[in-house]
Amino acid sequence: MGDQITTSVVIIGAGFGGLLLAQGLRKHNIPFQLFEQEQLSERPKGHRFRIGEDGTEALYATIPNELGDLFTKTCPKLIDPRPSFWDPKTLAKVDILPRPKRPGRGPCAIDRTWVLSLLSLGIEEHIHYDKRFTSYELVANSVLAKFEDGTSIRTKLLVGADGIHSRVRAQLQPTRRLVDMERQMIWARTTITPEVERRYPDWAMRWTALLDQQHPTRNVILEPIMWEKNLSILSNGRLPSQTNYIYWALSSELPTHTPRTIEELKAFVGSITENWDHDFCSLFRLADWDLAVRARILSSKPDIGHWSGTNGRVTLIGDAAHPMSPQGGLGGNTVAITAADLSRTLGQSGINEESIIDFENRMRATAKEALDTTFASAKFMWNGKEWYEYEEVENR
Fold it and tell me: Fewer Cβ close by (within 10 Å): the C or N end of the chain?
């Protein structure tokens, strides 16, 4: 690594967007290397997200046909294409106008661990773990990507797919600021055990959103993630088996004291749901708390901005480019669409300044539509405000 251009594309980040792009490059026979700061681990890598009809079509168009067949064969079963809305105290149904259905296959409920395992198949030798990106340097007609361990690699194109705290974005857009959505999210899962099946109500065993009408800033979105057969058997041993679970994401105002331990997190959830339906709250009492994650919600403004000075040698995709509130339900879908677009662009038009600029212009339009919809959704989900009413914050 170092002096010579050793690959056409370097991707920073082995999340959904980075791996999907990598599979697209593989399909187009474009050399690449992918670097991930986390160590390789069998621990579950997050929980669930959704991609809609257009995102599903983008994914199928990007990955090799053999992987597409495996995706279809091993995807968690879809219980509901659209969510139902309820009040968690009265269990009265809340009428919400559904989004229009788009053409295409899907939507799909995506288990993150499953899809990352699937999208890693066939490219394992190109993925480098425990490699923390620090900065890049423009050198002649190439980019030198540098890592914390002192190594570096030269490439024609550097793609930042390193998430909301992107180091690539921090250098590419040093003055860009996100907005603080003034709330937190707790993501967790509850394994579907015999006890859960006894205690948890049947009416909620579907894609469901519970909106607290007395405290409009509080809600929970949940969905069962279930496979009809053992994943290892379905994939002939290529994918690890997974356990059926109920995914849930509890959104609320920021607490006075930030929960920092599992016990504090459990106590906080118990305090804001104490008047909710008792049977439903078995979801929280029986949760796999060691896998729970809490985060303050930040978002891009609808205009993700421009960047210059790299001559098309550095770009962004996914949350590195357009982070958004997860409760809009469009984050993963937008990642799929833009990663697929970049893959297709490089395959058809090559790596050059014009093709990258064209891609970035399309990504800005796609991201703006999704972000506008997400901010609008926040108004009825939890009394959200206009994006320009939130405080701007640095995010590095």
Answer: C
Domain segments of the chain: what residues? 5-78+108-178+301-393, 181-298
User: Which CATH architecture fits 5-78+108-178+301-393?
Assistant: 3-Layer(bba) Sandwich (3.50)
Pick the more confident residue, 40 or 161: 161
For 218, phi and psi rounded to 5 degrees? -115, 135
CATH entry, 181-298, from 3.30.9.30, 3.40.190.10, 3.40.50.620, 3.50.50.60? 3.30.9.30
Assessment of whether the complete model's pTM goes beyond 0.70: yes
For the cut 70, the answer to whether the pLDDT of residue 44 exceeds it is no
d(CA 328, CA 278): 27
Greatest alpha-carbon pair distance for the chain in Å reads 66
**Cβ–Cβ < 8 Å for 84, 209:** yes
Cα Rg for the chain, rounded, in angstroms? 21
141-144 LR contacts (CB < 8 Å, sep 24+): 141/313, 142/5, 142/313, 143/10, 143/310, 143/313, 143/314, 144/2
Please give the full DSSP string across 265-299, using - where no structure is assigned: HHHHHHHHSTTS-TTTTHHHHT--GGG-EEEEEEE
Q: Classify each residue of 41-52 as buried b or exposed e, where b means 16 or more C-beta atoms within 10 Å of its C-beta.
A: eeebbbbbbbbb
Give the torsion through C-alpha atoms of 192, 195, 197, 201, to 10 deg. Answer: -110
Q: pLDDT tens across 198-249, in order?
A: 999 999 999 999 999 999 999 999 999 999 899 999 999 999 999 999 999 9
Taking the C-alpha atoms of residue 147 and residue 150, their distance in angstroms, rounded to an integer, is 6
* Token duo for residue 71: 């995706």
Contact 189, 45 (CB under 8 A): no
The Cα-based distances of 324 to 172, 249, 273, 300, 320 in angstroms read 19, 15, 25, 6, 10
Tell me the per-residue pLDDT of 91-110, one tens digit each, with 9 for 90 and over.
998 877 666 666 667 689 99
